Amino acid sequence: MAIVIKSQREIELMRVAARVVAEALELVGRLVKPGVTTESVDSAVGELILSRDCRIAFKGLYGYPANICISIDEEVVHGIPGPRRLREGEIVSVDVGTRYKGYCGDGARTYPVGNVGEGDRKLMRVCEESLRRAIQTVRAGGPLWEVSAAVQQYVESNGFSVVRKYVGHGIGSEFHEEPQIPNFVEKGKGQGVILEAGMVLAIEPMVNAGSADVGKLSDGWTVVTADGKKSAHFEHSVLVTEDGAEVLTRLD
Ligand code: MF3
Ligand code: CO
Predict the structure, then answer these.
(1) What is the rounded distance in angstroms from the CA atom of residue 184 to the CA atom of residue 164?
(2) Ligand 1 in contact with 4 (CB < 6 A)?
(3) For position 190, what pLDDT does the model report?
(4) Which regions in the chain score pLDDT beneath 70?
(5) What angle do CA 172, 176, 182 make, to 5 degrees?
(6) Which of 61, 128, 157, 212 has the fewest CB atoms inside 10 Å of its own CB, making it the most exposed?
(7) Is the Cβ atom of 63 under 6 angstroms away from ligand 1?
(8) Distance, CA 94 to ligand 2 centroid (Å)?
């Protein structure tokens, strides 16, 4: 399957979808505090997305049952919101997907609940910085593997590991499009791809404090670290331009 180059019109629609993701993640930042249930965050984000004339991209995607994914501490991604209350010292990863007139936006970030330990703050900081560095490598004519390498190099040099089982992806009229965007370099993993202006990439480092290995809970969705140590997740939808990148999931 070829990588889709978006037209100007498609890019305009993706800017709208992605902006609503950014708004939602800002709202989540205001909501996350000790005592709040994850399902209340899920409903608030659902209402915001609908009020912006967007659809909720995750609900029903592969059968996913909620509006957003909320993954706490050792949960890596795809945690299902419910009656669980956030507690001081946890770190909570929230992933939001939208669709505007058929075009998708995808973004995620990890938030501290109240005061969190220095090790956890470092985990979040390293994950976010690895994404920033990955985005800095993006440009038309540049190889995709440099994006992957930027994440891996920064994360591993800080003593953490990147999840290998789940990867970033192209995004457009389909939520998951080509190419796959691993957070590590491995021969044969689509890493001969050369970026072109008009590609849109969802770059999403998932960073574990301990080993890279993950498992899944019996709910069939929640991905957890195999060693029970914490994990962080940051994601932006990024347009490749002639001279660099435009981060679409950002409020500016
Ligand atoms: N947010 C995930 C991603 O970044 C996709 C969530 S899939 C769902 O690719 F089914 F859980 F919604
Ligand atoms: Co994604």
Answers:
(1) 7
(2) no
(3) 65
(4) 188-190
(5) 115
(6) 157
(7) no
(8) 11
Q: Is the CB of 99 under 6 A from ligand 1?
A: no
58 within ligand 1 shell (Cβ under 6 A): yes
Q: Is 1 contained in some domain?
A: no
Question: Scanning the structure block, which residue is given the tokens 């990148």?
Answer: 245
How many structural domains does the chain have? 1
Confirm whether 241 is domain-assigned.
yes
pLDDT at 189: 66
Which residues span the domain enclosing 80? Answer: 8-246
Residue 124: name the closest of 78, 170, 156, 92 by CA: 92
In this prediction the pTM is: 0.98
Contacts 24+ apart (CB under 8 A), 146-149: 147/181, 147/201, 147/203, 148/181, 148/182, 148/183, 148/184, 148/185, 148/189, 148/191, 149/185
Q: Which amino acid is at 101?
A: K
CA distance 130 to 66: 28
What are 88-111's pLDDT values in tens digits?
999 999 999 999 999 999 999 999
The predicted structure's pLDDT at residue 192: 87
pLDDT reported for residue 191: 73
Residue 2 in any domain: the answer is no
Residue 44 has a pLDDT of 99
CATH number for position 93: 3.90.230.10
